[in-house]
Amino acid sequence: xxxxxxxxxxxxxxxxxxxxxxxxxxxxxxxxxxxxxxxxxxxxxxxxxxxxxxxxxxxxxxxxxxxxxxxxxxxxxxxxxxxxxxxxxxxxxxxxxxxxxxxxxxxxxxxxxxxxxxxxxxxxxxxxxxxxxxxxxxxxxxxxxxxxxxx
Length: 151
Prior knowledge:
Shape: elongated
Mean pLDDT: 80
Radius of gyration: 29 Å
Helix content: 25-40%
CATH class of the domain at 44-136: Alpha Beta
Order of helices and strands: HEEEHHHHEE
Strand order of the largest sheet: 1-2-3
CATH architecture of the domain at 44-136: 2-Layer Sandwich
Number of strands: 5
Number of helices: 5
Low-confidence stretches: none
Distance between the termini: 102 Å
C-alpha cells in the first residue's frame, strides 16, 4: 500500500475531523441587518373585456403575467382572439405604466426622468382608452343599459 504522505501533494489539507473547534457564535453576536428599502421592480395593470370574458394582466414593460379566457372566447376566430388579447395587453401595459409613474413620483423621481423612461401619463392613458373605445365600437358601461336596451 502506498504511503499517503507521498501520494497526496498536501497531506495536511485533508482532515478527518472538523478544523473549526470553536463554539458557534451567539445569536446576539451576529450583527443585525438593516431593513432594506422595499422597491417594486415592476408594476402590473389589468385590462378586460366588458363582460370579463378575457382578462389580461401585464407589467409596465409589456410582459403579460396572466391571461384568463373563457371557453366561449376560445371558439372565436384565432386571429380575432389574438388581436383582442394583444389589444388588452397594450391597455394593461399602459395602465401599469401610469401606476409605475405614480409610484416613482412618490419616491421623488423628477418629471424629466419620468419622461425619459417613456411611462405614459394619466392623460395619455385616457386618450388611448377613448381612441380604443371609438375604434372598436365600444362604449363605457352605463347603469342605463339593461339587456341591450336603454331605459
